[in-house]
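Please decode residue identities from the backbone states below.
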């Protein structure tokens, strides 16, 4: 009796070792695929601020079997609090207060680096991680895709997935989408924790569309954010010295928690400076090459949806390609299945950002008055009856598909 050759193991190359990439590797590995993850940074990036796991993404985490790991690594944030200039609370939104669903602080708040760590640790035995390299060319040959790397190596695969960020360098192999800049800048810093720091997300508004944020983490430090809106574009492309100079000048007259953050950055606290933007490619796939996460459906690089949608997208993409007859058809099905989830992300516009970060003292007082109303018994009841959310759930509502 003769037997034929053993079935060939399908292979996926994934560009990006943040959240979506390792999550996709996890799901493909569990379905018998071989995976290679390409990452241009020399090692796994363990920096980053809080990310939310909301709506259907919580079920994805449960189905992946990492729910316990995630809950053990949450930041311990107990809610969101708007502060007046003197440091007193203007409005508070505890997690799950009065039984409502997630507000600004989600039930599962975890540092981006911690979630990435969990996903990489769960996949590193079955996935070939190649750090310090990037994709320089792609050739789709109908029955396979050939990928050339920066070090000169060439890999063949059944599928290439670009699981990168808003400003993905590899998205061009699918779609030459332009980033819609919204005029808002974020400076994220990890600063020393002091006795006055608590477990709240403390949000202090300042005039001229500026804000100061302090958030707890589970690593003994405090996560700080400075945000401001400007008509000048491209500040995120400046060198770190220039960015620190801009932060000092922009927040020089702001009191409260603001002064300690530029000082900590000047003393060497890690800082990441970014611009808020959106991208909506006309297509998410081209032959055997697909987009996942922010490279495909970034609503504003923040807002409570990005991480959740990346996890949901990884689950759906893996399920479709593992069960469909051919990869290009599966990629079309992936987009159709994902669109209802993407539609749940908050619609972030520049005018909304300006309303949430007022220009004047009067605007801040009005914002705080509205927040107090929303945080009170009447506001919570209206929110519960109407299904409203203080922050976009990003994946709540649609039914999550079931895959073998």
């Amino acid at each position: 009796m003769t037997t034929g050759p053993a079935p060939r193991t399908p292979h996926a190359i994934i560009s990006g070792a943040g959240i979506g990439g390792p999550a996709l590797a996890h799901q493909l590995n569990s379905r018998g695929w071989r995976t290679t993850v390409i990452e241009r940074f020399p090692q796994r990036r363990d920096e980053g601020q809080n990310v939310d796991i909301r709506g259907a993404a919580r079920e994805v985490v449960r189905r992946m079997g990492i729910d316990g790991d995630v809950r053990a690594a949450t930041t311990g944030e107990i809610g969101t609090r708007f502060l007046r200039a003197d440091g007193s609370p203007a409005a508070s939104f505890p997690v799950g207060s009065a039984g409502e669903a997630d507000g600004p602080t989600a039930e599962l708040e975890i540092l981006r680096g911690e979630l990435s760590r969990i996903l990489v640790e769960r996949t590193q035995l079955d996935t070939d991680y190649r750090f310090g390299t990037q994709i320089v060319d792609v050739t789709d040959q109908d029955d396979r895709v050939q990928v050339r790397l920066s070090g000169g190596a060439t890999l063949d695969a059944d599928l290439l997935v670009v699981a990168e960020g808003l400003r993905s360098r590899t998205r061009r192999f699918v779609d030459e989408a332009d980033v819609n800049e919204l005029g808002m800048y974020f400076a994220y810093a990890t600063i020393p924790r002091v006795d006055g720091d608590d477990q709240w997300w403390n949000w202090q508004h300042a005039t001229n569309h500026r804000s100061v944020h302090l958030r707890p983490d589970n690593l003994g430090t405090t996560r700080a954010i400075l945000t401001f809106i400007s008509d000048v574009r491209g500040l995120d492309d400046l060198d770190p010295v220039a960015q620190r100079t801009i932060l000092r000048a922009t927040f020089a007259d702001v009191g409260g928690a603001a002064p300690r953050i530029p000082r900590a950055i000047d003393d060497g606290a890690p800082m990441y400076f970014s611009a808020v933007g959106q991208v909506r490619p006309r297509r998410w796939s081209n032959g055997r090459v697909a987009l996942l996460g922010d490279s495909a459906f970034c609503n504003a690089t923040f807002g409570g949806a990005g991480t959740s949608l990346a996890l949901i997208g990884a689950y759906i993409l893996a399920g479709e390609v593992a069960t469909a007859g051919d990869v290009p058809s599966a990629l079309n099905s992936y987009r159709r299945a994902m669109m209802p989830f993407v539609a749940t992300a908050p619609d972030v516009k520049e005018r909304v950002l300006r309303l949430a970060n007022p220009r004047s003292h009067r605007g801040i007082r009005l914002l705080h008055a509205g927040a107090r109303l929303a945080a009170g018994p009447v506001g919570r009841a209206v929110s519960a009856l109407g299904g409203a959310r203080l922050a976009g759930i990003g994946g709540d509502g649609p039914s999550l598909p079931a895959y073998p």
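Observation: The CA atoms of residues 165 and 294 lie 5 Å apart.
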